[in-house]
Structures are given as structure tokens and as C-alpha cells.
Design brief:
CATH architecture: Alpha-Beta Barrel
CATH superfamily: Phosphatidylinositol (PI) phosphodiesterase
Largest sheet: 8 strands, parallel, barrel
Strand order of the largest sheet: 2-3-6-7-8-12-13-14
Distance between the termini: 55 Å
Shape: globular
Number of domains: 1
Structural class: alpha/beta
CATH class: Alpha Beta
Strand content: 15-25%
Oligomer: single chain
CATH topology: TIM Barrel
Order of helices and strands: HEHEHEEHHEHEHEHEHEEEHEHHEHEH
């Protein structure tokens, strides 16, 4: 009898250890790794995208983590965000690092510094690989729809944390290298390969989306890693004439000859921007279609201006994009009014620097 009791206790202890290893909860077996494909195939209503992790912040707001850091990404996931967006640049030693621009506040170019040198100036900046490894454990989903998971959350009286519903997905924005730091327009290959290397080494290719204003960059990604979904971003500036851009930014515009295979006219605006221009929204959509992207990202200013000039134009454009099979995202909504406008226009994924507001308003 004693031996039976001893064996029973041992079995209970072993079972307890297994449960603890699996997350310490009896429902842990109901979770499996989430993927971008899962997420996009189960779209219902609007969803929040954590802009730069937990929102734009270079230290001016002490109540928020610094943008584009591991702390910002963790804070977003722990609060219940399914997907975050981060920006990447490349260092002199070829590491993809997570930061918004490819230059520092004093205009020192990141690609002129090794990662260790960069860390002495901005110690909070992580490599993309480190950030993706941190995000990976959050890439889990509750078996069933997101709505079922939320119902389970309510049933258990909050015993499932908000983070247990997070899906740990990451949108990686590759900015076009600035003329300041890449005068000869020659670093795109190194940057795209560094990003793919970080994704593959962290084994997160099913959990990421790669985003860019540049169809040329996205085309390079598609050729190297066709399994990764892509997002073509646009800004209102790309639809303006040279004179209009100069008036809006106060920067000189220089047209450049950059043959990226899409028949677009590229331009450099001051030392900071190198972008293609679009003659019409149709040309933008055609470019997105032939680039093979799954998502597009629309500028708030562009949609708001379109609607002001012709009421209903923004919603019509979004509907046209959806008919072509794109998931439509929009940036950036930091107020309830902006969110509601994006929602009214039919936008599905909404970038926000006000993560608590986005979580409160999303309908996914």
C-alpha cells in the first residue's frame, strides 16, 4: 500500500512538473505557435498594431518604454497586442539593429559604427535577432478563433492574462537608406540580407511581415525569402510634384535614375529621404500587386486629404484595394477620432502609438 501511495505521489509530482514546464496552467496544451498566415486568415474587424513596439517615445514620456526596444515590444505583448511594428537599420559590421532612422540625432550614420560603438551611444538599441528571439515565445494562439479565446478569458474571470491571448507577431519596417548615409544607393542588398539572416537565425520566418516604402527592397526580399509576407507602405508625399514636396518639407528635391523594374520615378528629398513617386493611386496599387505583397499601409494624411477633396474617396480606395486581395492597414491613429475614421474607411490593421486606446477600440 505504501509503495502504491509513493508511486501515486511521484506521478502527481511529475505531472505537476510537466504542467509547470508547459506554462503552469491546465489549458497550456490548447496553445500552439501562431503564424502570420493564421492571423491574416482569421481577420474579423479591426486590430491594433503597436507602432514602434509600444508607441513613439525617445524618452520624453517616462511612463512608456523607449521605442523600438525589447522593453517596448514586451510591454505591447503583455498588454494584449497581437502584432508590433519595429524599424531596422544596419551597422558597419553588418548587424540589423532596431531603430527608426539610419542616423543618430547628431547625424552620425549608423552604418559608420559597429554595433558595439552604437551601444556605447544608445545602449537600449537591440539587434533584430535579439528582439525576434524575445518575441518568439509570445507567438502562441489559443485553439479556435480569437473571439473564442476572449470568451475563455472572460469565463475564467481573468485567470488567463491578456498576454496569453497575444500572438507575438512582428512587422519589420526596412526604411530606404537615406542619401545622407548612403550617397551611392548601394546598401540595400546588405540591409535586406541582414534582416533575412536575423529572421532565419531566430527561426521566426512564420511570425514576421516585412514592410517598406520601397518596392525595390520588397522585391529583393521576395526573391530571397518568398515565404515571408510583405507590406508596401505609402505616404502622401509620394503623390506630390517636386514643387509641392519642396513647399511641404522645405527640402530640395532631386530626381534620380533608379531602375527598380516598376517604371517609377524616384527622388531624393534633402539628405533624408529616397522614395519612388506615384502618378496615381492606381499606379501604387499596380506596383503593390506586381511586387506580390499581401498587405498595404496607407498614410492617415493621404486618406484624410482624399476624403476632404472628394467625400467617400478614401473608403472607395480601401474597397478597391481589398478587391485586389490586399489586407489594408493604416498609420497612425493616436486618438479615438482617428481610429474611428480609419474604421469608417474600411481599414483593418491600425498602427497606434496609444496602445491602450487601440486595444480598447479594436474589434477583432
Amino acid at each position: 500500500m505504501k509503495n502504491t501511495v509513493k508511486l501515486f505521489c511521484t506521478a502527481l509530482l511529475l505531472l505537476s512538473s510537466i504542467n509547470a514546464f508547459a506554462g503552469g496552467k491546465s489549458w497550456a496544451g490548447n496553445h500552439s505557435a501562431a503564424t502570420v498566415d493564421d492571423f491574416l486568415s482569421d481577420l474579423q474587424g479591426t486590430f491594433a498594431i503597436g507602432h514602434r513596439g509600444f508607441g513613439s517615445n525617445l524618452g520624453e514620456n517616462p511612463d512608456k518604454p523607449i521605442e523600438n526596444t525589447i522593453a517596448a515590444v514586451v510591454a505591447a505583448y503583455e498588454s494584449g497586442v497581437s502584432i508590433v511594428e519595429v524599424d531596422v537599420s544596419i551597422t558597419a559590421d553588418g548587424k540589423a539593429v532596431v531603430m527608426h532612422d539610419d542616423y543618430l540625432a547628431d547625424l552620425t550614420c549608423v552604418n559608420a559604427l559597429s554595433y558595439e560603438e552604437l551601444r556605447t551611444i544608445r545602449p537600449e538599441i537591440p539587434t533584430l535577432k535579439a528582439l525576434l528571439k524575445t518575441a518568439k515565445p509570445y507567438a502562441r494562439k489559443y485553439k479556435g478563433s480569437h473571439r473564442q479565446a476572449k470568451r475563455q478569458f472572460k469565463k475564467t474571470g481573468g485567470k488567463l492574462k491578456a498576454s496569453d491571448l497575444a500572438q507575438g507577431l512582428v512587422m519589420i519596417e526596412i526604411k530606404t537608406p537615406s542619401p545622407l548615409c548612403d550617397a551611392t544607393d548601394s546598401t540595400e542588398n546588405a540591409l535586406t540580407h541582414a534582416v533575412i539572416k536575423a529572421v532565419r537565425q531566430s527561426r521566426t520566418h512564420k511570425q514576421v511581415i516585412i514592410e517598406s516604402f520601397s518596392p525595390a527592397i520588397l522585391n529583393k526580399i521576395a526573391n530571397v525569402a518568398p515565404e515571408i509576407p510583405l507590406n508596401l507602405t505609402m505616404t502622401a508625399l509620394q503623390f506630390l510634384s517636386e514643387a509641392q514636396i519642396e513647399a511641404a518639407t522645405g527640402l530640395p528635391v532631386v530626381l534620380i535614375d533608379k531602375d527598380a523594374g516598376y517604371g517609377l520615378q524616384w527622388a531624393e528629398t534633402g539628405p533624408f529621404y529616397r522614395l519612388p513617386g506615384y502618378e496615381s493611386v492606381e499606379q501604387y496599387l499596380v506596383t503593390a500587386y506586381f511586387t506580390g505583397v499581401s498587405l498595404i499601409a496607407l498614410d492617415w494624411a493621404f486618406l484624410a486629404q482624399a476624403d476632404q477633396l472628394q467625400p467617400g474617396a478614401a473608403a472607395a480606395f480601401v474597397a478597391q484595394a481589398k478587391q485586389l486581395g490586399f489586407v489594408v492597414t493604416g498609420y497612425v491613429a493616436d486618438t479615438e477620432q482617428q481610429w474611428q475614421m480609419f474604421e469608417m474607411w474600411g481599414v483593418e490593421g491600425i498602427f497606434t502609438s496609444n496602445v491602450p486606446l487601440g486595444l480598447a477600440l479594436q474589434t477583432r
